[in-house]
Amino acid sequence: MPRSVLVELPAEASNVQILRVVTMSVAGGEAPIDSVSDAGLAVDEAAALLLEVPGTSRLSARINSGPHGVELVLHGDASSDAWPPDGFEASLASDVLNALAHRVEFQSAGGAGILLEL
User: What digits encode the pLDDT tens for the residues 5-49?
Assistant: First the structure.
């Protein structure tokens, strides 16, 4: 059964755990256990990138789960001229996100954002 959830939280490192748990819960309805764990790790990496954008005070996550996998869109409420961050392609975060997700797409409309298809 497809599921969709929207979560909005203050942009604080302590709230990333909430995003991780909600994402894993939504993903758990359709995905095998290793994919659920991957979704949690992907949220950690994506949220860490968004928390580094100056001026970010809120994070939002839209999580859609269905028979074809999980789509996760994380957004901060601040924009950045350097989005994705400079040097991202050569970073460990890039390696992790690209290993966990079928698709990684950076978005800038309405603030810095990352779309992940898991």
Answer: 999 999 999 999 999 999 999 888 766 777 788 889 999 999 999
User: pTM for the full model?
Assistant: 0.91
**Beta strands 58-66 and 69-76: pairing type?**
antiparallel
Range of the domain at 87: 3-117
Q: Which helix (H) or strand (E) is 22 found in, with range?
A: helix 16-27
CB under 8 Å to 33, separation ≥6 — which residues?
A: none
For residue 36, give the 3-state DSSP assignment: helix
DSSP letter for each residue of 53-84: STT--EEEEEEEEETTEEEEEEEES---SS-S
Q: Which two tokens stand for residue 33?
A: 């256990």
Structural domains of the chain, count: 1
Residue 6's φ and ψ, nearest 5 degrees, are -120, 130
Structure tokens at 53: 């954008």
- Interatomic CA distance for residues 54 and 78, integer angstroms: 7
Three-state secondary-structure class, residue 79 = coil
- Number of H helices and number of E strands within the chain? 3, 5
